[in-house]
Known about the structure:
Elements: H1 7-24, H2 26-40, H3 47-61, H4 64-76, H5 81-114
Helix pairs in contact: 1-2, 1-4, 3-4, 3-5, 4-5
Amino acid sequence: MSGILAFKEAVKDVSEHMRSLRETQPDLMTAFGQLAAAGTREGALNKKTRELVSLGIAVACRCDDCIAFHVQALVKLGTSRAELEDVLGTAVYMGGGPSMMYATHALAAFDEFSS
């Protein structure tokens, strides 16, 4: 992604492509769905905390599509901007300057999904 980011559109586009993969790669997509469910399941950490960790990793790894999906989930879970900014601060600490640029993408995604 470059220029003005449209995170709602990114989620829609990626989801469509993933549906195509479900048809041609059902075993892969089933396994990925199970991995996602296991990675976000309530346990010692609640769902929101696990999504915040996932967002921090997405920022540090510089994955805009991942940022879009995790911010969308966080907005649905009632995450505040202050909570989001705290996790972004940690992601920037761990990932340096490039993560700072992707942290701004996460803020833009939060604004878009919150509107």
